[in-house]
Amino acid sequence: QVQLGESGGGLVQPGGSLRLSCAASGSMINTYAMGWYRQAPGKQRELVASIINGGNTNYADSVKGRFTISRDNAKNMVYLQMNSLKPEDTAVYYCNARAIVGGGNYWGQGTQVTVSS
After folding, report:
1. What is the Cα–Cα distance from 44 to 105, expressed in whole angstroms?
2. What percentage of the chain carries pLDDT values higher than 70?
3. CA gap 98, 102 in Å, rounded
4. What's the pLDDT at 101?
């Protein structure tokens, strides 16, 4: 089992940047596919970006070219660099770990990102 804790959210102006961090504990993340999801008020949770152990990444069309996901297995950390932020990026961002083998699927508590002038 893995526990996840997000940090780095906050209030930023349109066009600004934020870097979200996800710290994992309880298990090494090298056996998990890692991802960032977000949920805006009144909307369903959606995938923002994911990264597997080999480094292959996947992004939602709405964030391609602006967001970058990365992982540091040695530090048990996952990051989401968000640039050129837009008001529509406002949401609670969640870190996710999905076991490569077995059915484990874990979530963090989320961190609020608000993009507003």
Report:
1. 18
2. 100
3. 9
4. 83
